[in-house]
Amino acid sequence: MPARIPVTVITGFLGAGKTTLLRHLVEHADGRRLALVVNEFGEVGVDGALLRACGLPGCGDEDIVELANGCICCTVADDFLPTMRRLLNRPEPPDHILIETSGLALPKPLVKAFTWPEVRTRATVDGVVAVVDARAVADGLFAADPAAVERQRQADPALDHETPLGELFEEQLACADLVVLNKWDAVAAAEQARVERIVAAHLRPGVRTVPARFGRVPPAVLLGLEAAAEDDLAARPSHHDEGDDHEHDDFTSLVVELPPVADPAALVAAVQELARSQPVYRVKGFVAVAGRPAPLALQAVGDRVSHWFERRAPTTSRLVVIGSADLDREKVAAVLRDGAAI
Fold first, then answer.
1. Which terminus, N or C, of the chain has the lesser number of Cβ atoms within 10 Å?
2. pLDDT by residue (tens digit) across 237-278?
3. Within a domain: 53
4. Phi-psi category of residue 287: left, alpha or beta, with phi > 0 → left and psi -120 to 50 → alpha
5. Domain end among 200, 235, 270
6. Which of 208, 235, 262 delimits the end of a domain?
7. Which DSSP state fits 295?
8. Which of 298, 105, 135 minimizes the C-alpha distance to 212?
């Protein structure tokens, strides 16, 4: 029987740096034939475009599959399994498959899909890699302490009974075989031990953490874990073990079309204003800039905004905004369009 193709599942919260880590892996593939499955939450394939922009032989259109019909763990039968079937049936199958989940995805249902007979005999989950925004954890953005969450709920009746972001954080860590503490350079030395303690509280015994900057982790560290994660599902605890159904009603996304931007700094300021005035978790996309041949790539987590000119990016000019369900969609669009018009 031919060897099963290893698959690495890369999970992590919105903006943790999953796409950056994937791009680094592609750039250092060392001759491996890689296939990438990218799960977008929203209507625009931003992450896939950023990966294609690397311009490397291992990063062609045929090697990148985008699943844009919703969270990958909710569309396993409709989207994921047919995609795996196509990849495995290629005349020359990939040496390794990398799956970037949506920031909203529960990893365990996806790993469970590898127990399906048509996949199990041909592919195995080499490992689940959780990418963590270490700076965000240091800032206390994840509710890792259930008692503290309950105290907050009792003090503020407007809070939901559930804390979706904290729960997602726990789910991703509990399923991980390796955790990348990304943006480690942005965490002061005095805070690093606290971040490690918060993360370690949700890890299974023996799971290691790796500090990283800009997702630069050697492929030899990330690939070849040989975890066969589909074989030890029972050891990966989940809040949803009594049923695989879960809701994403706490989240919404929208796409904002923008005219060419005159002043990128004004648009950045508008994104930062949104982070302060609206429940926005993530903004990402490409924007045309007047007088510049290359579009501006923009990625934001809260009010932390990164932007650069990306020569190989799409010529479309639009941003994806991901936030909580009570987001004022009209206000968000107005703020971004005003920023683009300055």
1. N
2. 887 665 445 555 556 778 889 999 989 999 999 999 988 888
3. yes
4. beta
5. 235
6. 235
7. P
8. 135
Q: Which residues contact 99 (CB under 8 A, 6 or more apart)?
A: 7, 8, 9, 10, 36, 37, 39, 72, 110
Say if pTM beats, i.e. exceeds, 0.85.
no
Of 133, 170, 175, 173, nearest in space to 149 by CA: 170
- Three-state secondary-structure class, residue 287: strand
State the Cα–Cα distance between residues 257 and 167, nearest whole angstrom. Answer: 32
On whether both 337 and 207 belong to a single domain, the answer is no
User: Distance from CA of residue 324 to its chain's centroid?
Assistant: 17
> Residue 290: which domain range?
251-341
Residue 23 and residue 156 in one domain: yes
* DSSP bridge partners of 5: 123
pLDDT digits (tens, 9 = 90+) for 191-239: 999 999 999 999 998 899 999 999 999 988 999 898 999 998 888 888 7
Any domain includes 180: yes
Contact by Cβ (8 Å): 318, 49: no
53-72 pLDDT tens trace: 444 555 555 556 655 544 45
Q: Which of 99, 121, 93, 102 is nearest to 111 (CA)?
A: 99
